[in-house]
Amino acid sequence: MTFDTLAVATELKDAGFPPEQAGALARAWSHVASGDISTKSDLIGTESRLEKKIDAVRSDLEKKIDAVHSDNVLLKWMIGFSLGLSLLILGKLFAVHY
């Protein structure tokens, strides 16, 4: 971004600022304007890159959640089967003793 310090200083003088103050303000604003200022296109590019990263993380998390869900379903079946088998064994043991 270009910053015309002479034009700014002239405008400030025309508005009633003393010449020394107008020059100092124009130089100060020049330092601010010459810094790293993001443009709209910079922000759009950053937003696009972040959206892609977020989509990748979302996809990875969905895969991990699906895997955990599958493991939970298998675990429920195993626990159910084990409990059923245990009850069957206990039932047989009680049937033998009575």
Secondary-structure map:
Elements: H1 5-14, H2 19-33, H3 40-97
What does this structure look like?
With 98 residues, the protein is mainly α. It folds into two domains: 1-37, no CATH class; 48-98. It is 85% helix and 0% strand. It contains three helices and no strands. The longest helix is centred in the C-terminal third of the chain and has 58 residues, at 40-97.
Arithmetic mean of pLDDT: 90
Give unreliable regions as ranges: none
Question: In whole angstroms, how far apart are the ends?
Answer: 95 Å
Instruction: Describe the main β-sheet briefly.
Output: none
Categorize the overall geometry: rod-shaped
Number of domains: 2
Order of helices and strands: HHH
Overall SS class: mainly alpha
What Rg, in angstroms, do the CA atoms define?
37 Å
Note the total helix count. 3
Overall strand count: 0
* Share in β-strands: under 5%
Helix-residue proportion:
over 70%
